[in-house]
User: Which sequence fits this backbone?
């Protein structure tokens, strides 16, 4: 996807170098993972692989889906300020490693985080320019059905995740964009549109130092 509004060498403006930070949040089971992969297929974003203390689910790969670590490793990293944000979610720790995200942004790459609400609030506090996107289920009953269908959690954990979802839904107004995941393709289109729109914001641009002055006859 072409990012930004002008690639022309003669353009009087240029994009600022730093990449954009996109944060996707939404209840467990809302389909964030699917939407994230659709977005990554269609837009050039660096996906930040989180650390977690939970066990891998069947098919999940260390280093791709998560970095799976034990609690001691996680806490060690936390003590050495290795996380941009972190949170406890239904008995497990999750965190975004700071260094890869900072490096990608500094290289001008856009970054995508997929994290829960508390983590999103921490990111917003440190990066006021971060773009916060909240994914909503069509309704809570559908969310329950999706969690049961996914079959990765025991029923007690499903209830905990649903309770957390109901709580998280209350913070939707703290996010910049809402995307309802009733149809995956449409929700993915919405995400692509958000990335594109954010690239067109005027604050993403600066005058080129070599550009002619505004009143120049050129
Ligand atoms: P799951 O166990 O279903 O993979 O993830 C549980 C919740 O933790 C999801 O809402 C997911 O988005 C969130 N999560 C995943 N990685 C991180 C992270 O690095 N930080 C925070 N705060 N939440 C995360």
Assistant:
């Amino acid at each position: 996807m072409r990012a930004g509004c002008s690639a022309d060498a003669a353009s009087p403006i240029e994009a600022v170098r730093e990449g954009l930070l996109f944060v996707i949040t939404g209840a467990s089971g809302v389909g964030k993972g699917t939407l994230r992969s659709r977005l990554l297929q269609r837009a050039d974003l660096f996906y930040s692989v989180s650390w977690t203390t939970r066990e891998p689910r069947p098919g999940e790969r260390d280093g791709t889906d998560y970095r799976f670590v034990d609690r001691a490793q996680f806490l060690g990293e936390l003590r050495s300020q290795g996380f941009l944000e972190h949170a406890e979610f239904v008995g497990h720790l999750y965190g975004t490693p700071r260094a890869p995200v900072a490096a990608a942004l500094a290289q001008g790459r856009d970054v995508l985080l997929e994290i829960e609400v508390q983590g999103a609030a921490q990111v917003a506090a440190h990066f006021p320019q971060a773009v916060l996107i909240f994914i909503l289920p069509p309704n809570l009953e559908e969310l329950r059905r999706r969690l049961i269908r996914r079959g990765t959690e025991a029923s007690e954990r499903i209830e905990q995740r649903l309770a957390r979802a109901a709580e998280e839904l209350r913070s939707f107004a703290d996010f910049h964009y809402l995307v309802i995941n009733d149809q995956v393709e449409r929700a993915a289109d919405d995400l692509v549109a958000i990335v594109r729109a954010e690239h067109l914001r005027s604050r993403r641009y600066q005058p080129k130092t070599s550009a002619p002055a505004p009143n120049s006859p050129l």
About this structure: Residues 14-206 form a domain with the Rossmann fold fold (CATH 3.40.50.300). The two ends are 32 Å apart (CA to CA).
